[in-house]
Specification:
Layout lengths: L1 E4 L2 E5 L6 E5 L2 E5 L3 E3 L2 E7 L4 E5 L2 E3 L3 E7 L2 E6 L3 E2 L2 E2 L3 E3 L7 E4 L5 E6 L10 H25 L17 H26 L7 H28 L2 E2 L3 E2 L27 H23 L5 H24 L4 H5 L7 H19 L3 H4 L9 H20 L7 H27 L6 H15 L8 H24 L8 H19 L17 H32 L6 H6 L1 H6 L11
Antiparallel strand pairs: 1-4, 2-3, 2-15, 5-6, 6-9, 7-8, 9-10, 10-13, 11-12, 14-15, 16-17
Length: 579
């Protein structure tokens, strides 16, 4: 390792005061570096001097340690190394760009201070690039995908005859697709308003970045995994619609299914919006402590290994859950149970935040954000549920009505239930309850009647409210109660579908337990248990895998400073609610 050191250098042979022994330039100074556990450790001096002349020698005691870990530089104050032992560090600071003070290893400590010029890695170069890989890999993958996409042939859109498409259906599903997309920024506001002020930006971007990551995966092969040629009812063939092959120019029907009155491309885009929001839901459980880069990798693996299989099982005409007779109108299993179980797995693997361990109560940073997010989610959910009819018809209208009714009932039920527990009616309580009602009605929206949706919203809100309270008393730190609200809310919705579904509402559905068909209820229960077991197990393994290959959780110092600053170098503005 070669560089030129200027200004001055000094050394000591023990842990006492370093002594200046020379001033000048060292054109070929040797960089002393300790490599421990695949981490570069550079030892530096702060440049802070204690003016205690001893025979004309200036002494110092304060030191800094740079820890270069997977592309992130952490600079600790008062770090001292002797032999192979790191003694202590307190707090953090910044390093002047033009100074580097380097310490030796072994039994002698040597320190150099100065500007770096002509710096070059020799020893440890492979380790350096291994640590830099997490920085380069995402861009390299995106670059390769974009280059491959250049060679995909351009094909004309499928036209069909005058009876192939319905203009009304196309117009409605275009609107519904946009409505589902707006749920993602709505979710970002909803979550961002509930975390600590120093983590608002980092929480919001983790939901929004899903729109970028999932869109590229979906076009490349994700849609094909979900809706491509079925492989034994478990997964789609990734080659069927690779880079949307036979989607733009394909006939409007799914593999082995009935014809649709909308273009296949529009159906694929509508389904993309569901895929985007699902990993975004998980953010609420792991907020305030997960590294941004690690969460990006989670999104990729979750879409491939969890979301795509579940979408195939539930919505592909040959999916094994659908053929078993299980009904999920708009994503109770595919979206909410899968995200809720993944959230629980992530909370367990990441362990608790310091604030929970220290029993600190963190008030929501911005309740108006929560209210805005709830409004956007409620608004977008009309496209989520009513759009799942895939046509502008009476079924879509029924789903629209049940969606609104369940949300209204659940919002009131959560707020009033809090009052029964001795609390005051709160904005936060109504908002959370409304979202729980939206979750619970999702699998049932096109199968149950409007009056029954009042009961579904009320029951879901009470059960999720109790579950949220239980989780707060437990050791599991689900930051924003994703599992109690989305996981359990989705489970309640699946079971309520098994109870209140009626062929009078949807002739393509089934009659539930309430109408004399216990068999269908047991089918819903069985499907729910399968999805819970699969989602939790695979998501747990995904989080564990990520924790092995790269840091999953931020350092204690980063958590204390807040993820907005340490992960994104950005800061949320002044809280408008504070004087």
């Amino acid at each position: 390792m070669k560089f030129t050191l200027e200004w001055f250098s000094y050394m000591t042979s023990d842990l006492g005061y370093p002594r200046i022994f020379s001033i000048g330039s060292y054109p070929d100074a040797k960089l002393a570096v300790s490599i421990e556990n695949s981490i570069f450790r550079f030892w530096i001096n702060s440049g802070i001097r204690l003016q205690e002349p001893i025979s004309g020698i200036i002494n110092t005691w304060v030191h800094f340690a740079i820890v270069y870990d997977n592309g992130t530089i952490n600079i600790f104050r008062n770090g001292v190394k002797f032999g192979n032992t790191f003694y202590y560090h307190l707090g953090m600071t910044t390093l002047w760009d033009d100074q580097l003070l380097i310490g030796g290893d072994g039994e002698e400590l040597s320190f150099f201070v100065g500007r770096i010029s002509n710096f070059r890695y020799t020893k440890g170069e492979k380790l350096y690039w291994a640590n830099m890989l997490p920085k380069f890999a995402p861009f390299i993958v995106l670059l390769l995908v974009s280059l491959l996409a250049l060679f995909v042939p351009q094909l004309p859109s499928f036209q069909g005859d005058a009876s192939t498409y319905s203009g009304a259906d196309i117009a409605w599903i275009l609107v519904a697709t946009a409505l589902v997309f707006i749920m993602t920024p709505g979710l970002a506001f909803f979550y961002g308003g509930m975390v600590h002020r120093k983590n608002i930006i980092s929480t919001m971007i983790k939901s929004m970045v899903s729109a970028g990551v999932v869109s590229v995966i979906w076009i490349s092969f994700g849609y094909s995994l979900s809706f491509g040629e079925s492989i034994n009812g478990f997964i789609g063939n990734p080659m069927t619609h690779l880079f949307f092959k036979d989607v733009v120019n394909g006939a409007p029907s799914l593999q082995g299914g009935t014809a649709m009155t909308i273009p296949l491309l529009l159906f694929a885009l509508f389904q993309l919006m569901f895929a985007i929001i699902t990993p975004g839901l998980v953010v609420g459980a792991v907020a305030e402590r997960i590294k941004f880069t690690s969460y990006i990798l989670f999104i990729v693996l979750f879409i491939i290994l969890v979301y795509a299989p579940l979408a195939h099982w539930s919505w592909h005409p040959n999916g094994f859950l659908l053929k078993m007779g299980a009904l999920d109108f708009a994503g109770g299993t595919v979206v909410h149970i899968s995200a809720g179980c993944a959230a629980l797995a992530g909370a367990i693997v990441l362990k608790s935040r310091r604030s929970k361990l220290e029993q600190q109560e963190i008030p929501p940073a911005n309740i108006p954000y929560v209210l805005i997010g709830t409004g956007l989610l409620w608004f977008g959910w009309f496209g989520f549920n009513a759009g799942s009819a895939l046509a502008a018809n009476s079924l879509a209208i029924n789903a629209f009505a049940t969606t609104n009714t369940a949300a209204a009932s659940a919002g009131l039920a959560w707020m009033f239930f809090d009052v029964l527990k001795g609390k005051k009616p709160s904005v936060l309580g109504f908002c959370i309850g409304a979202v729980v009602g939206l979750v619970a009605i999702t699998p049932a929206a096109g199968f149950v009647g409007i009056p029954q949706s009042i009961f579904i919203g009320l029951v879901a809100a009470i059960i999720s409210n109790v579950a949220s309270h239980v989780f707060k008393l437990s050791r599991v730190d689900d930051t924003l109660d994703v599992f109690p609200c989305h996981g359990i809310g989705g489970m309640v919705g699946m079971l309520m579908t098994g109870i209140f579904a009626s062929k009078a509402v949807n002739a393509g559905g089934n009659d539930g337990l309430f109408y004399g068909n216990p068999t269908f209820f047991l089918t819903q229960l069985k499907a729910m248990l399968i999805v819970v077991a699969y989602s939790f197990t695979v998501s747990f393994l995904i989080f564990k895998f990520i924790s092995i290959i790269m840091p999953l959780r931020v350092t204690e110092e980063d958590e204390e400073l807040g993820l907005d600053a340490t992960q994104h170098d950005e800061k949320y503005g002044r809280n408008p609610l504070k004087a």
